[in-house]
């Protein structure tokens, strides 16, 4: 399991413009610092556990989410001990059925409190705490899953910005000309779409555990997979292009606009 922040404005790191252009304006909603935390968990079998979504705030939110998902609030939209215990009790243990399991996670303080350790022992869970600085090599989510998930989320944000811009409706913009920030429900819908896509990547998830050396065959027959750069580079079929965050429609629209101004 791992926590990953998701910002309400997911500005891409690449743009499309004429060669030599020194600066390119990118339209956003002005919410680049506003974020939620998405708690992801996957299994060596390729299964994707229901996520926990942590919004900033104190009041319970009335949002439409798939069955089994956990929508939580926290003052800073961060994971803390209370939410970690909820995640264990409401998501992880129902998935394992309290059968003996290995839970791989980093050394974030909310993962290793005394109460969390006690609850894991009660649930027949063996925690495997990854030392600091090693998650990029030993955490399946960091190795191959967080990046494509963020890419899926960014595509949804770009579609939102594109549709709002093309609509040219004053009701979609604030007085300062910015597009309205996406609502919590819209952001949650982006996560739902990303998770639906992730569920189709079972082979990638299974391989990520093997590349990290967690689920390789004890006979040694799969040792060649461990930290195999070729395996890492081919695990996500959505990341083999320089403009992975752009859909074909986005690229075509950008090129058409450039041609119109020539």
Automatic annotation (TrEMBL):
- Using the record's annotation, list all stretches that form the DDE-1 domain: 33-201
Looking up Pfam families in the UniProt record yields:
DDE_1
> Which InterPro entries does the entry mention?
CenT-Element_Derived, DDE_SF_endonuclease_dom
Which protein are we looking at?
Answer: DDE-1 domain-containing protein
Taxonomic superkingdom: Eukaryota
């Amino acid at each position: 399991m791992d926590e990953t922040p998701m910002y309400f404005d997911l500005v891409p790191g690449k743009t499309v413009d004429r060669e030599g252009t020194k600066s390119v304006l990118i339209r956003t909603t002005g919410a680049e610092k506003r974020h939620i935390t998405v708690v992801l968990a996957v299994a060596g079998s390729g299964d994707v556990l229901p996520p926990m979504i942590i919004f900033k705030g104190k009041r319970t939110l009335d949002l439409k989410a798939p069955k089994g998902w956990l929508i939580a609030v926290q003052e800073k939209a961060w994971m803390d001990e209370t939410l970690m215990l909820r995640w264990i009790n409401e998501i992880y243990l129902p998935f394992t059925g309290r059968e003996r399991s290995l839970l791989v996670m980093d050394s974030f303080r909310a993962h290793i409190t005394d109460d969390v350790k006690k609850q894991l022992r009660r649930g027949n869970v063996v925690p495997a705490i990854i030392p600091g600085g090693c998650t990029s090599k030993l955490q399946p989510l960091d190795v191959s899953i967080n990046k494509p998930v963020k890419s899926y989320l960014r595509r949804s944000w770009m579609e939102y910005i594109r549709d709002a811009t093309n609509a040219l409706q004053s009701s979609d913009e604030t007085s300062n000309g910015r597009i309205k920030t996406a609502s919590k429900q819209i952001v949650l819908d982006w996560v739902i779409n990303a998770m639906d896509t992730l569920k189709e990547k079972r082979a990638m998830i299974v391989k990520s555990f093997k590349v990290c050396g967690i689920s390789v065959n004890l006979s040694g027959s799969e040792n060649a997979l461990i930290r195999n750069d070729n395996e890492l580079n081919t695990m996500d079929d959505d990341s083999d292009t320089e403009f992975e965050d752009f859909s074909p429609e986005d690229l075509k629209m950008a090129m058409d606009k450039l041609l119109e101004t020539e």
